């Protein structure tokens, strides 16, 4: 590779991040505000970031990294994109929050409805967790039933009823569940293996009249990327419709990332009809805390103040966050999606080639430009498969990449994310780091 290393020395010493972690740990449990950030799965000191620009992050010690987390998806245009920054500045100059309706939230809702054909209406919220929590309440209110079906390894935020066998941080820590979730709440959740339509049919045959909804990640990214098998989503639509249950497609991660209309844009429309409800987050906030749930008009009409299902938020539809989200979505042109595909495939192909050269068993899986590298030699179709991989090999690979200035997600159970700002220099820097990382993965220390 022709690329210049960013630093002559590998990044090993991070005293400023270590000092911040010590300070943080005194006042924040584990020193972090979201568990995966703590590096518990990979060990070492999490990097406290001071700045981001395009594809680059700069930590508190001044080290630079090519960012392959992209805030877990939102930074699809890169950090501090000038158009988004201008929109945020312009909105902020006119006030931060009114507690009344304002135009930006209308424009953001219009943009989402225009992009995702089955979505007639959306309600804006502040996080993906709120979106799924509200969507299941709405499904329960609409159907008058209580039971929710979810799939093992799918993560839908830290909602009580949806934490059973969740992926993401819960997978990282190999927790079967979370403490503090009432038995009564977990008892209303049926957890099934992903991609197993026969299990769904059996569950509906037994308890179909009690089931309010099936919630699924449109393409799971929180146990690593595990796309739906051909016909699986359509099968969910068929079974739920036959039993009067709703289908909720969680596109918090895939929405507006896998295509301009999310994973639905790649897989839909479905012969048996669209999901009834969708949830969105991440990209649609452009790095700010805004998210949404939406879908069929007759279902959405059940929401207060139109209907009896209560849902609210002091900062929901925040004008600054809405401006950031709208500028981000408007920036997501066809060229952007083309660039994401090129960057993702260039990096994934090179990673695979280097791992092969180093004799490291691995499988790369895709959903649009989201991909992950599983450290095992067979495809992964469900959560059991995702857990059956060499997480030690991942750990060694991760740390080699980090020392060379490439920041991967600090867990083997996550997607890698790229942005349209990943230019040739950033990609070359990643490619240059891969051979040594592959050798590290192969080594036993
Ligand atoms: C990230 C994520 C959530 C939760 O979103 P937060 O904004 O972190 O609460 C829900 N569902 C999916 C599929 C996600 O990837």
From TrEMBL:
GO aspect biological process, one term: protoporphyrinogen IX biosynthetic process
Q: Which Gene Ontology terms cover its molecular function?
A: glutamate-1-semialdehyde 2,1-aminomutase activity; pyridoxal phosphate binding; transaminase activity
* Protein name in the entry: Glutamate-1-semialdehyde 2,1-aminomutase
- Give the EC number(s) listed in the UniProt record: 5.4.3.8
The protein's required cofactors: pyridoxal 5'-phosphate
Pathway info: Porphyrin-containing compound metabolism; protoporphyrin-IX biosynthesis; 5-aminolevulinate from L-glutamyl-tRNA(Glu): step 2/2
* InterPro entries with a match to the protein in the record: 4pyrrol_synth_GluAld_NH2Trfase, Aminotrans_3, Aminotrans_3_PPA_site, PyrdxlP-dep_Trfase, PyrdxlP-dep_Trfase_major, PyrdxlP-dep_Trfase_small
Give the species: Intrasporangium oryzae NRRL B-24470
A Pfam family in this protein? Aminotran_3
Q: Where in the cell is it found?
A: Cytoplasm
UniProt catalytic activity: (S)-4-amino-5-oxopentanoate = 5-aminolevulinate
Q: Which domain of life is it from?
A: Bacteria
User: Where does this chain mainly localize?
Assistant: cytoplasm
Respond yes or no to whether keyword Transferase is given for this record.
yes
Q: Which residues carry this modification: N6-(pyridoxal phosphate)lysine?
A: 282
CC per GO annotation: cytoplasm
| Broadest EC class assigned to this enzyme | isomerase
How is this protein organized at the quaternary level? Homodimer.
What is the name of the gene encoding this protein?
Answer: hemL
Sorted alphabetically, which keywords does the UniProt record give? Aminotransferase, Cytoplasm, Isomerase, Porphyrin biosynthesis, Pyridoxal phosphate, Transferase
